[in-house]
């Protein structure tokens, strides 16, 4: 049983990022989705890893990155995700705990191994993600700590984990537990919603009123709703979601809350080095401001400031003091 309370707890992929630079020809020759994401089998991941250049390893995963940002912003954060009892699993657990993020999910004692994401960064700063989820998609509702979820002001759910049946059931159960305690549920969309029939399931979750704050980029919300314009996307989603937040890269971000739309410009960045984790840290900044009682515009500004810090260097974890960057 959990003791103490949290500002935010996330449920998502427990992944170790393996990041390397490459030129555009490497992407083109292998038919990789530049700037996007694809799922790999273990064999495909091994083959791509062998072809990559010198790489650096750091624990990742979309919601886990958000919790690293939340902790850096002074929030009491927790994370639920499945790793295996192997070297990458130990790296993931160590990194989360070292960042001050509560992580207590027991590792799996047998295959599959800890998940990994092979990230290739081209000279224009775009990241192409090739993900082998492995153990992270073995998360089950049994791994949830109901008391931990009830204690958190916000439960943050990750779209990348939506596809497989068991982790999807875990996220739905977490949303129900959070709402039963009067807590807020936030959901972040992902590129993986374009795979198979995942769109229908997420739309069902939204229409059932299980999501209070929805994050997504332009492409993701258009795909989810089937709408052409952002205004139509906003109108459709706002029927069932209290706050719809859309990131637009260099164009900034906008939100619709209680029928009021607010838009901010992107924060200034001297040089875009690597866009990995931009959306993850945007969500961290937005929610940190929200948990401190800020209004929608200030939440958007906090999100864009956090995103600007992350795209100024390699990797999806903050390097600068985020509390100095995002002044809350």
Plain-language structure description:
- The protein has 328 residues and is of the alpha/beta class.
- It has a domain of 227 residues: 3-Layer(aba) Sandwich (UDP-N-acetylmuramoyl-L-alanine:D-glutamate ligase), CATH 3.40.1190.
- Helix content is 37%, strand content 21%.
- The chain has twelve helices and 14 strands.
- Strands 6-5-1-9-10-11-12-13-14 form a nine-stranded mixed β-sheet, sandwiched between helices. Strands 3-8-7-2-4 form a five-stranded mixed β-sheet.
- Strand 12 and strand 13 form a beta hairpin.
- The radius of gyration is 18 Å and the shape is globular.
- The two termini are 32 Å apart.
- The model has no long low-confidence stretch (mean pLDDT 92).
Write the topology of this structure.
Layout: E1 8-11, E2 15-21, H1 24-29, E3 37-39, H2 42-51, E4 56-60, H3 62-72, E5 77-80, H4 87-98, E6 102-103, E7 115-121, E8 127-132, H5 146-151, E9 154-158, H6 165-180, E10 184-188, H7 198-207, E11 213-217, H8 218-225, H9 230-238, E12 243-247, E13 253-257, E14 260-264, H10 278-291, H11 296-310, H12 322-325
Parallel strand pairs: 1-5, 1-9, 2-7, 3-8, 5-6, 9-10, 10-11, 11-12
Antiparallel strand pairs: 2-4, 7-8, 12-13, 13-14
